[in-house]
Amino acid sequence: MDIFIKKAIVHQFSPEDTELILADELLNLTPKMEDYLRKKIERVYSDQAKTGIFDLENAFLSRLTDDFLETSVAVANTWREAFILSENQKTNDLVFLDFESHGIKHFCFMRLALRETLAHVGTELSNPIVLTQNNLPGAGSPPDEALIVNLENRHYLLIEKRIKHNGAFLNYFSEMLLAVEPVISAQKSIKTLEQTAQKVAASFNQDDFQFQSKVKSAIHKNLEENQELSPEKLADQLFEDNLTAKLSFIDQASETISEPVKLDQIDTSRQLKKFESQKLSLSNGIELTVPNVVYEDAESVEFILNPDGTYSILIKNIEAIQTK
User: Fold this and answer.
1) Residues 152 and 30 in one domain
2) Do 34 and 127 belong together in one domain?
3) Residue 41's CB: how many other CB atoms inside 10 A?
4) For residue 137, what is the DSSP state?
5) From what superkingdom does this record's organism come (predicted)?
């Protein structure tokens, strides 16, 4: 990704007194530190991120000023007021970033829960390994929570975790800190569409392995060609000959997904890889992984329903076979 980090600052939240340790100067962006933060940013652009657009009148948006240090302090204090309700608090680094992507200015706020880790730090041969505190999570893991705001069009990406308060779980980040209702993540949207399709198909006695394969193929096609998932378009592809099933699918999916899910802001490579092939597990122990383009080609794979109700799979035109 095209990410240029211009400024960074780190404040810290202590669970012992629920106070903030506020930095008064910017972080020194060494090459290793910059690489670490860039990887964290990249992990926010994932299928786990919720999305949305801030209203111009949004109170949180108004806190994002040209004074980066002042903005970070204001947001950190506002975050603390919401987070102290949590019944499970840890030491957290609050990382604020001013970065550009494709020449567009972005604001980023990440919460990183610090860990206890065993480390080899001593020279004493009998006891060289000690438990160290306040260790940052690995660069490859996503932030515990994160917000990225495109300051040009007000679009945002959000990774949030619920907190427990008085026996209930709250989406404190979106509800209390941001005061927004984000669109559910692509990951959850896809899962919802899969489950809804199978539920509707089952009610019409269509939920066999061929229909499930059809669902995977349709989702992959929409991800690859349109970078969005629309319940209406999927309904046309999955239930083209059954108007009642089509309307039922749209109605049930709309309870969670009211508008097409836009995926142009995030990295969909993981979902594309997941749906690019059909994985079949047969009752005799054989497992097959068949690319969609091959699966849908009658000249390559043929499924035969035998008179006794069993299936035969004919794989045709194989030029070579290798063992792995």
Assistant:
1) yes
2) yes
3) 22
4) P
5) Bacteria
C-alpha 179 chain-centroid distance:
20
- Residue 152 scores a pLDDT above 90: yes
CA distance 208 to 305: 13
Q: Is residue 244 part of a domain?
A: yes
Please report the pLDDT score of residue 89 as a whole number.
84
Closest to 44 in 3D by CA, of 220, 267, 264:
267
Radius of gyration of the chain (CA): 25
DSSP H helical segments within the chain, as ranges? 31-44, 59-62, 68-83, 172, 186-203, 209-226, 231-238, 243-254, 269-275, 292-295
Q: What is the mean pLDDT of residues 264-280?
A: 85
Nearest Cα residue to 20 out of 92, 102, 121: 92
Examine the domain organization and report whether 194 and 286 are in the same domain: no
Q: pLDDT digit string (tens) for 162-215?
A: 998 888 899 999 999 999 999 889 899 999 999 999 999 999 887 778 888 889
